[in-house]
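User: I'll paste a sequence; please echo it back and then give the predicted structure.

Assistant: Echoing your sequence first, then the prediction.
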Amino acid sequence: MAKKQKPNILFILIDDLGWQDLQCYGSKFYETPNIDKLRSEGMMFTNAYSACAVCSPTRASILTGKNPAHLQFTGHITAIGRHRYPEHGRIIPPDDKMYVDLNEIMIPEALKSLGYKSISIGKWHVGKEEKYFPTLQGFDINIAGYEHGSPPTYWGPYKNPNSDWNPKIKNMMEGEPGEYLTDRLTDEAIHFIKNNKERPFFIYLSHYAVHTPLEAPDSLVRKYEKKLKKNKSQKSAVYAAMIENMDTNIGRLLFELQKMNLSDNTIIIFYSDNGGEQRATSNKPLREGKGFLYEGGIRVPLIIKWPGKVGANTTCDVPVISDDIYPTIMEIIGKGVKPAKDIDGLSLIPVLRHSKTLKREQLCWYYPHYSPQAKMPGYAIRKGDFKLIEHYDPEKIELFNIKYDINESQNLADSHPEKVNELKRAFDSWLKKMDPVMHSLNPNYTEGYRDE
């Protein structure tokens, strides 16, 4: 009898997709039938988090299993080379790495000795310089991955002559005029599968959608313009059109896997890198969105389909984080993977097999940066149902019971000082263990100053 091939891994990462931007997560406006079907065939996580409120650090955590603080990569890669901060703000953000060290073992490197063919398609944004691009981090192929976190345009040939900082997508053949980027990246994934269906593969399909610039096919935009006139629960017809197009392309990809008889041996993980951007989408009932340490900035959709192992249409309420993806994949693949050292994530196998707990007491976020959206550096810790946020600028401590107050409207810090102190101590202990590049106090700080 022929030896069964190791399972394929298809990891689909959507950029800036909010927790409720899918029908299966409760949206009454966006239309996502293909992702809903994927959810019906696997497990949906209701308490999944990104490791950061912005993109680059979360992506680094997915690929390595290490928390951004541990990687010393806590802020997103910026065009100016370091993180902006107000001249008179209270803190100076850390001058962190803006790359993942080449000695870190990313997912494709761990799988390479087992004969896996790997490809990174779409957004990279995990290294500012070419020496930190995908093919030097274990991937066999890189398509459209480079230093920037958003495309100059979603329309082929993907050039913007009016942009000095991001005039053109790198590492991809120019598209035909009028070609749409999300369609093209899906085409690349399908092409890769057809060429590698006889061997195990790992696909990191990291769509630029639904990140800005907000651009979508006119026919879809018109559809949602009409819908917005009747249903005002959302903000942007263009954003809604981008979501539907993204969903359609995922449907195309799933159909091709089925047609090639690969569905039963392909594990699919669907994730977002941070919460929804509030200019484009409403994250209600969650508070705020991308760039904030509130739930709207870090709680995200996560769906895992593992045929024959994970029950169809199942749900997990256990808090999990993007650090957990790496060890989960490693345990699924099993014997023969190249192990990474000192990772922070936990394998999700226990909850995928319907355990109600993981052996972890807390989740932590160290984000000492003035995000473009929030401009509120700080940290957060969730332990059980309680979540503490300590803002560095302006100084403020907030404590919420997430179970009963999902929209974080009732600050319990004054009435629960013991819980505040408990969580502060727990975070301090965790931070010491992570050993990040730390922020510092700004000697030019002017009390009461806010750069709006």
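The two ends are 67 Å apart (CA to CA). The longest strand covers residues 8-14.
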